Amino acid sequence: MDIQALKVFQVVAKMGSISGAARELNYAQSNITTKIQQLETHLQATLFYRHNRGITITPKGKLLVTYAEKIFQLIDETNRVMKDDQTPKGPLIIGSMETTAAVRLPVLLSKYSHDYPKVDLMLKTGPTDQHLYEVLHYEVDGAFVSGPISHPDIAQKTVFEEEMVLITDMNHPPLSSIADIQNRTLLVFRSGCSYRAKLENMLHQEGVAPSKIMEFGTLDAIIGCVAAGLGISMLPYSVVAQQIQDGTLRQHQISTSYRKVETLFIYRKDKYLSTPLTKFLELLE
Questions:
Q1: Is the Cα torsion angle 188, 191, 192, 198 positive or negative in sign?
Q2: Using 50, 70 and 90 to split pLDDT, how confident is the model at 273?
Q3: pLDDT in tens, 181-192
Q4: How far apart are CA 110 and CA 199, in angstroms?
Q5: Could you confirm whether the keyword Transcription appears in this record (predicted)?
Q6: Which residues pair with 143 in a beta bridge?
Q7: Vertex 155: Cα angle to 144 and 196 (nearest 5)
Q8: Whole-number Å distance between alpha carbons of 266 and 143
Q9: What three-state secondary structure class fits 206?
Q10: What angle do CA 155, 239, 267 make, to 5 degrees?
Q11: Nearest to residue 97, comparing CAs of 124, 122, 121, 134?
Q12: In angstroms, rounded to a whole number, what is the distance separating the alpha carbons of residues 251 and 168?
């Protein structure tokens, strides 16, 4: 199989068009078309339907996308294994929830960067669902996510335990029960955030319906809008401890069954543990 043709196919599938792939790869469209035709001839399979609006990937094409991802990941891993002389160096991509990155990781990442200056450390923030997908698809080396996680391809270790609290503005009266927040606006991260899912699940179990849900992209925005009285949220105490102590936020305890949340570090079981990742795991011990 022509690896270059497979790479062209992968980019066409990702971009959804011949012209998009041509721009991405800086190839002539005719060269892209030729590579796809050569690959289809070799595999004796139609990978894309052609029509007036462009192309649509076929079921066989979708299957090849999965295998292509594995092939290129294995090629990349082979190169890394062969070049790994047990000296921590090269890229290390770590995913993290924004709350964890803001409070738990600064000291850890600083120490790692100081101890291993030749490692090109990159941090990507986002919700748990996003990072689980990225780990499974080899897009990050590992990630800090909210537990529990159950997947046969995932290795995990517990690194932190968070205490969750409901937060409101200072003018909000103390809560005698969760029903007291009936018809309030929830201020949350986008779908895929595990803390949002836990809050929504808790309210559902208690029969409480929020009047509105407002999504935010940053932690600072949620904290600022809660303090301004726009709505309520649920976050780890470690994230909002300073604001609570400063008197800009009021905390409210929640039931024990929802209070404790584990933060896990996850990575693929079948992934080669590069020296940079091995040293990072050692730092988490």
A1: positive
A2: confident
A3: 777 899 999 888
A4: 32
A5: yes
A6: 95, 266
A7: 40
A8: 5
A9: coil
A10: 10
A11: 124
A12: 7
Q: Give the H or E element holding residue 92.
A: strand 90-96
Q: Please give the Cα distance from 78 to 124 (Å, whole number).
A: 24
**Low-confidence winner among 25-39, 106-120, 136-150, 201-215 (lowest mean pLDDT):** 201-215
Q: Which two tokens stand for residue 47?
A: 């990978």
Confidence band for 210, pLDDT divided at 50, 70 and 90: confident
Are the C-beta atoms of residues 25 and 8 closer than 8 Å to each other?
yes
Judged against a pLDDT cut of 80, whether residue 222 lies above it is answered with yes
Task: Give Cβ neighbours of residue 37 (< 8 Å, ≥ 6 apart).
Answer: none
Q: Residue 158 belongs to what H/E stretch?
A: strand 154-168
**70-84, 132-146, 212-226: lowest mean pLDDT where?**
70-84
Confidence (pLDDT) at 87:
85
Q: Which two structure tokens, joined as six digits, stand for 223?
A: 């904290």
pLDDT, the chain, mean: 91
Distances (CA, A) of 193 to 128, 132, 158: 6, 11, 18
Checking if the pLDDT of 85 tops 80, the result is no
Cα distance between residue 260 and residue 189, in whole Å: 19
How far apart CA 261 and CA 257 sit, in angstroms, is 10
